[in-house]
Amino acid sequence: MSGVNLLGTIAALLAAGVVSVPVAKRLGLGSVLGYLVAGAVIGPYCLKLLTNSDDVLHVAEFGVVMLLFLVGLELEPKRLWSLRKSIFGLGTLQVILCAAVIALVTRSYTGWNLSAATVAGLGFAMSSTAIVLQILAERGLTQTALGKDSFAVLLFQDLAVIPILAILPLLGTEQQNSVTGPAAMSPVLRSIAAVGIILGLILFSRTLVRPLFHWVAKTRQKEIFTALSLLIVVGIAILMDSIGLSMALGTFLAGVVLAESEYRHELQSNVEPFKGLLLGIFFTAVGSSMNFSIFSAKPLQILMTVFLLLISKIIILKICAKLFNHQSRNSWLFSLLLSQGGEFAFVLFTTARGLGALSADQSAELTLVVALSMFTTPFLLKATERWLREKPAGKRKEADAFDSAHDPVIIAGMGRFGQIVVRLLHSQSIRATVIDFSPDLLELVRPFGLKVYYGDATDLAVLEAAGIEHAKVLVLAIDDVKGCLRAAEQVRKHYPHVRVLVRARDMTHLHEIHKLGITDTERETFSAALALGEKALLALGFHPHTARKRSKIFHQYDLEVISKMQHLWDDRATYASSAKKAREELERIFAEDQKNLNHGGADTAWVVK
Amino acid sequence: MSERKIVVLFFHPNLKTSKVGSALSETAARIPGVLFRDMYGIYPDYLIDVKREQQIAEAHDLIVFQHPVYWYSCPPLMKLWIDEVLEYGWAYGSGGNKLHGKQMLNAVSAGGSSEAYSSAGSNRFEISTFFTPFNQTAHLCGMKYANPHVLFGARGLSQAEIESECHSYENLLQNYIRTGELP
Fold this sequence. Notes:
The structure holds two protein chains of two kinds.
Chain A: H1 3-26, H2 30-42, H3 53-74, H4 77-82, H5 84-110, H6 114-125, H7 129-138, H8 145-171, H9 187-217, H10 222-242, H11 247-258, H12 264-288, H13 292-297, H14 299-323, H15 328-337, H16 343-355, H17 360-390, H18 395-403, E1 409-412, H19 416-427, E2 432-436, H20 439-445, E3 451-454, H21 460-465, E4 473-476, H22 481-494, E5 499-504, H23 507-515, E6 521-523, H24 526-539, H25 544-565, H26 572-599
Parallel strand pairs in A: 1-2, 1-4, 2-3, 4-5, 5-6
Helix pairs in contact in A: 1-2, 1-12, 2-12, 2-17, 3-11, 3-12, 5-6, 5-8, 5-14, 6-8, 6-16, 7-8, 8-15, 8-16, 9-10, 9-11, 10-11, 10-12, 14-15, 14-17, 15-17, 16-17, 24-25, 25-26
Chain B: E1 6-10, H1 19-29, E2 34-38, H2 39-42, H3 50-58, E3 62-68, H4 76-85, E4 103-109, H5 127-130, H6 132-140, E5 144-145, E6 149-151, H7 159-179
Parallel strand pairs in B: 1-2, 1-3, 3-4, 4-5, 4-6
Helix pairs in contact in B: 1-7
């Protein structure tokens, strides 16, 4: 691929996505279909802008790897363990039943030999992790029971890839010759290596990750942080690949291990954009790899095959879901969601062709069928949307259960100010997530069991990763005034339900914050200065109660003046003169107060006549 | 005569623990023509805005002090309100006639039973005896002091009893708005 060609390909991929995804979204079909259609349009059978889809596919498969890394980051080991029943029960049942039934259907419908039919069955038993997770995320279903079970099944499918690739040679007619490298390892050796790598990963995350991130974080160079995040993902992928494990599975496990690290949010927000882009390119490449010449040769037969395979898979999934106690609405959604063939099928068919288990024609036809089945999912969901939505289900409760995993308060900035806020909340047993970009401060407070995360809180992506969506209150106590305003504005705009409380650096900052419609503000020095002023009054012989009351009246009045002058803020000249007036007014009030003091013992209270 | 206006000054420092207090407050707050003020919410620092309170008092015909009975009297913020808002020259004394002709009502919830608040009971006096200072305060300000509206045994009430108490409180306020009469 020459340089110009590469740029041309990238331009074609990006342009196709930019045009078709918004259209697909507008039609309510989700981004996946948009990418697939875009791929088909720019592919070799239409506009011919993308002719090397295999190469592109290979690169873009890394999007799936990153996706699973991010999924892993969301799943702490504890939560993964709670999914074990779904993973091994539901997952096993689904893969075995689907593979068997689809193999039988294929054999009776096409008359292929047993090994070809078995490969077809195994390939089609898999679902598309990329499509399903993308759809779940777009619909906000990731953390529901439906989302968790779908994910468990997908995870099992990824695990199943390993034994399936191992038995594939048994189905083939050609002997494998001179296989070297990972494939030559015996299964026992491979398992040992896998366990070794996972243990190494755990060790790595427990001992090395923190100092490593700490060290990089101290440079305050965001791009180095991004580089480190990507390096970890790519490194683990290579390591897993080297022992013949699925890269996706490997990075998923790495994600789970790193889920407990306080740098999790930063990792998430760094990898997220790469994942999104690569997944988009991946879907586009799938779309472009569809062989329309096979389709035009026998369109009816192909469509019929797609139809038969989908129906068989949906029915089996529905039965599985039923056995695992899903409500009918959810079990239908589950079946439709997982009904398509997955990206792993492409790998499987290519490998099987190499081993002689499939003929070249069979492989091309199956690839087309799987790609077409990927097209159907958004349509199936759209078509059944109304029907499936009308029946209310206990979804609300699931969402609440998820909420409990999130802290109600996010504190951005863990300096001297933020620390006091956190301590007060902590004393009332209110959990808070803390974001700061000083690794030293985070080290300091970590032993107190707070959820602390390294990151730039002025970046909306970091706030999102910290769970702003589920928070009730955001406390902004960061030094960067411009960043603070930006964060406040973004949160107000995108998460209006979150109450934003701001520590203002000075009057300018205060007025700017008020201009955003945020009134929960506190100047960083005001209260302390007032308290010390009160002590000065005490030192001068004021009665403690009187001193306190003077200070409170002063505070009250000061707040009133600020709110009165807010609208003048943009016009500095007027502001200065009204500030002067305000001072005079204050003097007048205090003078009047003194008069009142002479009137009786206390300020305004009961006078005996 | 146009409809009478009521302001309910609600003094309860620990509303979270009081089912009755919350229920009665909600009842009062949703009656049209009643201005309901949660005073501990408005003045968490006990820093009462005297001028504002006087304006509000002047604009209403009936001032209801809704509060729990604490040590045979009222919670401290309410006493402070009386001390500070009822100023000489405004509420009483020379020129102090701004409250003349208005009514004052204590709507209270008491922990003890009505039997406890009797000469034979553990509290030894009628509740109206304990409220003599409020009665005289009203009198000094030229106000008519209504019979206290008392909910006895407030802690042990069932949900149904709370509802019925709310209903009777609502009737009392509604009736005043219409007729200007208090029991």
